[in-house]
From TrEMBL:
The chain crosses the membrane at residues 37-59. Belongs to the TCTA family. It is found in: Membrane. The keyword Protein biosynthesis does not apply. It holds the Pfam family T_cell_tran_alt. Its main location: membrane. This is T-cell leukemia translocation-altered gene protein homolog. Residues 70-102 are annotated as: Disordered. GO terms for cellular component: membrane.
Amino acid sequence: MEEPWDFEFLSRIVDGFVSFLSEFVDDWLANDMRVSIFKILFSWLVVSLIAIHFAWRVYGNTVNDMYYRQGTSGQNGGTPDTAPHRSGWESAAGDTIKTHRE
């Protein structure tokens, strides 16, 4: 008894998909402004994805190596735990701290 229901359900899905495709093809072939804008944006998306794909093929290993640097110290390799020098904003141990009253 389950078979007719499954066939009817699949038939409705296929009919809906075919009608959607036929409407899409009709709109695609029309010389409408919104279709032209859609074609331009869709082409831009496809070209961008292809460019990203080729860029990743060319530079992917370099980016991966930059992210996972090999080294002996620190989590990122080569990154020191502390800064090698003190910044100009830090005062030396012997300096007196000036207040706003001075």
